[in-house]
Amino acid sequence: MYNPFKLYKLLTGSFGNVISLDWSSDGKLLLAGCDDATTRVFAADWIEGFSLYALGSHKSAVIGCFFKDDSSADCYTLSRDGSLNAWSCSKQLSDFNIYQRGQPLDSVEDELDESEAKSVHKQGYERFKDSSVATNEKIKMDVTYSRAGKFSVSTASQSVDITCADYHRGSKLIVIGMSDGQFHLYELPDFMQIQALSISSNFAITAAKINASGDWIAIASQSLGQLLVWEWQSESYIMKQQSHASKHVVTAAVFSPDEQFVVTGGNDSKVKLWQLKTSFC
Fold first, then answer.
1. What pLDDT does 114 receive?
2. Residue range 263-274: average pLDDT?
3. Average pLDDT over residues 17-32
4. 191 vs 106 pLDDT, higher one
5. Beta bridge partners of 278
């Protein structure tokens, strides 16, 4: 059965491409980092006294934006030039009064007749829809953000850009990838550097991700065609795989007779044997 997605809410207000996103732990708020050097805190649902808050003070595109922990609306924003801002919110997540999805509308409608249910639905929508656009009445904002700290990522030169980042709320660790092939690991909120490593001096890191436990860090470089998993506590590689580099193409591929392997050849003069069950070379 085909079940198409249904648009729940359209969040507007950004003046550039959206580069990074992050949900709050309860799904009430959404961070959107843009290449217009701003981060916007959206209400993912209709919240009393809050609809949209714009965070500035960056001079380049926001590469990463992350909520600090599971209980607060505090957040971090990281820009391409290596500037990291810490933001403090005047409210905790539990203080946001929100119409829960389907509440009270669905539960109330079950106890009312059709005409009464439509009336309740209309009243709820009229009260919590974006009145700053649809009506002349502005939402009275009772939520504020203030910058609690500003830090700078140490790079080899000013020409080095931040290309990717990921943050782990439990361990308060942030990994930052750079255009010169380096990746740094910091501990927040003090922004203390734990490790600084490099996988290549010529190829940018294009993706970085910390696993759920906060022990492993996956680093990928598109141009190098490499994926590695780093265990930062033991300072050792868990996995290191490299395909044919992206500037080269796969010119031949064939399965083994038992279909357990596939061999690929490329115009980089390399032949690679891949195990299908593990995808390892």
1. 46
2. 79
3. 94
4. 191
5. none
Query: Which pair of tokens denotes residue 123?
Result: 């009243």
233-247 burial string, b = 16+ CB within 10 Å, else e? eeeeeeeebebbbee
- pLDDT for 244: 67
- Which ranges of the chain does DSSP label H, i.e. alpha helix? 105-109, 114-128, 131-134
- 11: CB partners within 8 A, 6+ apart: 30, 32, 42, 44, 52
Residue 41 has pLDDT above 90, yes or no: yes
14 near 8, Cβ under 8 Å? no
Rg (CA), the chain: 24
Whether the CB-CB separation of 116 and 45 falls below 8 Å is answered with no
| pLDDT for residue 13 is more than 70 | yes
Query: Is residue 113 over pLDDT 50?
Result: no
Element holding 280 (H helix, E strand): none
Helices and strands counted in the chain (H then E): 3, 19
Q: Which amino acid is at 41?
A: V
**Number of Cα atoms under 13 Å in the Cβ half of residue 253:** 8
Asked whether 89 and 81 are in contact (CB, 8 A), the reply is no
- The average pLDDT across 66-90 equals 96
The DSSP line for 114-182 is HHHHHHHHHHHHHHHS-HHHHSSPPP-----EEEEEEEE---SSTT--EEEEEEETTTTEEEEEETTSE
Tell me which residue of 13, 41, 11 sits closest to 29, measured CA to CA. 41
Q: Which pairs with CB-CB distance under 8 Å and at least 24 residues apart come from 209-215? A: 209/166, 210/166, 210/167, 210/168, 210/171, 210/173, 210/175, 214/168, 214/170, 214/171, 214/173
pLDDT > 50? residue 99: yes
CA distance 39 to 58: 9
Do 175 and 207 meet the contact criterion of CB atoms below 8 Å apart?
no
